Amino acid sequence: MNPRTPTLAELQRAVRRSLSDGVGVGADAADWVLPDGLTPDARLRVYRNTSASVLRDALRLAFPATQRLVGAAFFDGAAGLFARASLPASAWLDEYGAEFPGFLARMPEAACVPYLADVARLEWQVDLALHAPDVAALDLARLARLDEPALRTLRLRPHPAARLLRCAYPVDAIWRAVLEQDDRALRRIRLDDGPVHLLAQRTDDGVDVLRLGEADWRVACALFAGEPIDAAFANAPQAGTHALFATLLSRGCFADTAAQDGGIDSTNGGSRS
Q1: pTM of this prediction?
Q2: What single string gives the DSSP state of each residue in 45-87?
Q3: Gap between the Cα atoms of 95 and 158, Å rounded
Q4: Using omega within 30 degrees of 0 as the cis cutoff, is the peptide bond preceding 6 cis?
Q5: What InterPro entries would the database entry show (predicted)?
Q6: Which among 146, 140, 131 has a CA at the least distance from the CA of 249?
Q7: Cα–Cα distance between 188 and 128 in angstroms, integer?
Q8: Which of 57 and 22 is assigned the larger pLDDT?
Q9: Cα 73 to the chain's mean position, in Å?
């Protein structure tokens, strides 16, 4: 046993190394664990296995369609490798898995399913929308009181439960068909129907995924990024920007916030990944 008592931070770092390095590595953590019926290595192995199981379960919950596409065995193997390389930054596991789509995109064994990483990217945005803070939507009555010059320079703040993303494959159709176990719909999907430009938004019934036109999506991205309305509309002058804006407003895609300097404060929001 290590004669020196570690600080809490040292012990936490040592245990973290033992979780990510795997069996037989991280002896410094074992040096500080009391046997008490089990060897230190055996105790750490129990903790390591429990931690790996919890992280796999968190990924299964966040990526159900991804798991169904490749099967439980492949998914668990990929999740285990990912968990070893990417331990969570906090105890709130709803935040865990942001890098998993990128991990799948780099995984040679997943190359035969080229749309897998994009499906995972959509699922992560769906998960973010589902667990986003429950904040009030923009007050349309207050918006209606603004005069035209103020409206043109208005900057909006995206609602945290509304997310934008672009994918190379028609992942919205794949995701929906897989979760509904609709084999007929899956057979009708053409992979060359991408790219798709999507809005994922939490509703009273779950999360709705809406496909936007490319021009509309560019305008929505500009609005979500906090550009003034006039400047955002200039991103796609040929698009039906006013109809799109009305749709986004009616769906509650912007968060309410106090008026500030004659306008509405804006912050970064929905993803464009």
Answers
A1: 0.82
A2: HHHHHHHHHHHHHHHHHH-HHHHHHH-HHHHHHHHHHHHHH--
A3: 19
A4: no
A5: DUF2063, DUF2063_N_sf
A6: 140
A7: 29
A8: 57
A9: 23
Q: What is the dihedral of CA 98, 100, 103, 107, to 10 degrees?
A: -160
Question: Buried b vs exposed e over 41-75: b needs ≥16 C-beta within 10 Å?
Answer: bebbbeebeebbeebbebbeebbbbbbebbeeebb
Check whether 200 has a pLDDT greater than 60: yes
Q: What is the predicted pLDDT for the residue at 189?
A: 96
The one-letter amino acid at 197: H
CA 35 to chain centre: 41
CB 228 within 8 A of CB 153: yes
